[in-house]
Amino acid sequence: MRRLSAATAFRPADPAGRGGLASQQQKILRVREFDHFVVIDFEATCERDARIYPQEIIEFPAVLVDATTGALLSSFRTYVKPRHHPRLTAFCTELTGIQQDQVDGGVDLATALAMHDAWLSVAGAAKNRLAVVTWGDWDCKTMLESECNFKNLEKPRYFDQWVNLRIPFEAAFGAGRRNLQEAVREAGLQWDGRLHCGLDDARNTARLLAELMRRGVSISITGSLPQPPPPLPEPEPELELQFQPQCAYQR
Ligand code: AMP
Ligand code: MG
């Protein structure tokens, strides 16, 4: 996994708020890599104790966060209609709260990606100054990547790297197995909404992100997709071989 420079990530100079000239100067000199974070939490088709193949996204939520202040600025959600297993299992509805009529009225994934991108533009988020934040690596590394691959869809480049919030969380609170709800509570926040509702999960992840920022925890890219191999070099123009036999057979 590739880690980008932490030096350019959000890192308050003076988390304890002690001030002082040196820390003020540090604040002025620091160059931030991101203006916004966009917190994503996909929900997908699922079955109890079994794998659904291919798994498809059914809820596409996002929360935009100011990378300087931690303020939650805007939210987005669309339901997505699964093509391969269009009927949700009872287990899936029970887990996520997503109803059959919500996915029946949903858009396809290509449209969801385009709507999300347009929402970012309207919200004023510059795509090259944006980092995707998720709880875990599954959303960008596994789910979106595999579905875009098997549906042959292009996705915006900002989904190709992300901040797995577990990593800065563990830097602050120590390693351990905990789900998002447990992490939110461990950070001293109240869980708000329904666990496994994508938008509620994304909102709570965004609140946890803001809390980590407030505590001065460094937030930087933790994972990325493998870079595609560089294009093959152009083939050399074929040399015309002018072959002259050097030693003819002599009687
Ligand atoms: P989450 O973000 O934790 O709500 O989960 C994302 C997706 O992972 C869900 O929409 C399901 O597709 C799958 N998932 C989560 N928990 C389970 C579970 N206990 N059993 C089966 N699939 C699950
Ligand atoms: Mg979720």
UniProtKB/TrEMBL annotation:
GO MF terms held by the record: 3'-5'-RNA exonuclease activity; nucleic acid binding
What the entry lists under InterPro entries is as follows: 3-5_Exoribonuclease, ERI-1_3'hExo-like, Ribonucl_H, RNaseH-like_sf, RNaseH_sf
Hydrolase in keyword set: yes
By its UniProt entry, which Pfam families does this protein fall under?
A: RNase_T
Bias (Low complexity) ranges: 240-251
Which residue ranges does UniProt annotate as crossing the membrane? Answer: none
Q: Where is this region: Disordered?
A: 1-21, 222-251
Which residue intervals define the domain Exonuclease in the entry?
36-218
Give the UniProt keywords, A-Z: Exonuclease, Hydrolase, Nuclease
Recorded protein name is: Exonuclease domain-containing protein
